[in-house]
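Ticket reopened. Same input as before:
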Amino acid sequence: MSRRRTVSDIGEFGLIEGIKKLAEAHGSNAANARKGIIAGIGDDAAALNLKHIGDRVILFTTDTLAEGVHFRRGWMLPEEIGRKAVEANASDIAAMGGKPLYALVSLAAPSSLEKNVFDGIFRGIVFASEQYKTKIIGGNISRGKEIQITLTLIGAAKKDELCLRSGAKPGDFIFVSRPLGASAAGLGLFSRGIRGFEETKKKFRNPKADFSFSGRLLAAVTSMIDISDGLLGDLGHVCESSKAGATLFTGNIPIDPDALKAAHRLNHDPLDYALHSGEEYALLYTLPEQHLPLAKGFLIGEITRKKGIYLFNNGVRMAVKPKGFDHFLRGKHKGGCHGIVY
Amino acid sequence: MSRRRTVSDIGEFGLIEGIKKLAEAHGSNAANARKGIIAGIGDDAAALNLKHIGDRVILFTTDTLAEGVHFRRGWMLPEEIGRKAVEANASDIAAMGGKPLYALVSLAAPSSLEKNVFDGIFRGIVFASEQYKTKIIGGNISRGKEIQITLTLIGAAKKDELCLRSGAKPGDFIFVSRPLGASAAGLGLFSRGIRGFEETKKKFRNPKADFSFSGRLLAAVTSMIDISDGLLGDLGHVCESSKAGATLFTGNIPIDPDALKAAHRLNHDPLDYALHSGEEYALLYTLPEQHLPLAKGFLIGEITRKKGIYLFNNGVRMAVKPKGFDHFLRGKHKGGCHGIVY
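Engineering reply: fixed in the latest deploy. New output:
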């Protein structure tokens, strides 16, 4: 059996040439499919004429997927890893009320990385970008001890549809766009090596950003964030930015049926998954009462003048720490309930 | 003696808060010092109104610095590492004929990273950005096995001053903006553990992008690239993009005096440093004869219709491979001269 080809058999510039061809061959990535590109992959910088953006607001976001932290090759196909890198970043654009337009892709990998793994990751990135009509305009490839994918997405939002974290007002209702918990439940299944539960695992492996909101809803929303650090963590970010607090009605928090099944098997509280599962990419948003008819998803609570986050269940109110996933504190200060208040 | 504080004592969100404060406290990074920022650090994405760009072209570039590949902590101070990350990216903007405006900073680091090293790297990034009046608008922090800094710079160039790699024409003269070789020579000194030669080492540790070109020169330039892969490698990129060849007059290639001194000590051919030293961030550009009065730097050769790169010295012409630094081929196919042609 012959040795599998690695990226070091192709070289940096051969790899870039391959990416360029793949990106140019695909639909919205085809040459000139996106307006305004003066120079794309293969120059020192990409050069764009952004006149077609008009008076829309330009959005920039960047997010890294690191091997061993955000994915393991044993759990996900290379193409899924690439797709997840795009979805994680697209979700940040969705959370601003915008649409992605262009992408820069940086990949660090060891020289020993198999060429077919490299190709798979890039196929995932190109295919997921294509689905969002997002054009890859440049990037960087370098050596590193582990695989790290850093995507930068450039998007745009209409001025009156831009959604920041900071606009939530006391009395606003809190919504989440879809049921939660499957990502953490899927991770739990993989971590414990449990067979089956393919639907739950699929939700962990193939997360999707949520671009389902209408312009009217986006215009009415007072604050928005995507759930990437966990419901409590991200609600904490909204509350901090908006200088407010929140009460969640525990019974109203929608739990993904696949998360429920897995939680039963794993002997884990499904509500804990729903409160802390990151990488859900559901949208968490606030809406004033007069715009309730526009709401999408599930009403889960209310913004309060009183600071802090409280869970309300069967007449019992409990203060919770808004801690979500923290890259460096993980396992040190675990978020969660820290006592009944009244 | 108490244990030194690490990033895991502060946590991801504490670190982001610290970066935000540092960035906002500094000159051009002070709040609203850059026009058009609707949302900066601390939301899902940065939101900008780019009306002040007018009809300029927008530039995007991204580059990664990885520990062990681009820097070693034993050789450079944390602040120098941060500065180098900015200069490497700024140089790509300079090579397009533009100026940087905004930056996104992604850092991956192990939990054990000392807080003062983290702070030093960010001070370097903030201070170097400030010098270019570039505002940090967002980024990402995640765990990783090694330190990796990925910067994305957003810049702008006047339409008629935009310089691509692809415009070189046969007959154009080839120029380099300043003497070469000190970066590779400095690296050689560090690698061999040689004391002294501080000036040479300083050039390796503190590379600088070159923004010294006037608008008139930029408008006259037919192609441009920054020397990050080595003179031959980057000239190769220009030739490939421009579908042309080049002849370099070996005697005209300016060698940095500090590279010369170090080469003597290291018993290394100084011309080899000048031809292959990456991370020089000097500008390599082509200029048609009628614009020679605008030229800056050193005339080192000519673009030819005949493909391939040739060195011309004392009546001898030698074909060279245009290979520069390749992250994955390094040490496998070494660039350089491969035979006398005539």
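Residues 29-33, 330-342 of chain B have pLDDT under 50 and may be disordered. The longest helix of chain B spans residues 78-94. Please confirm and we'll close it.
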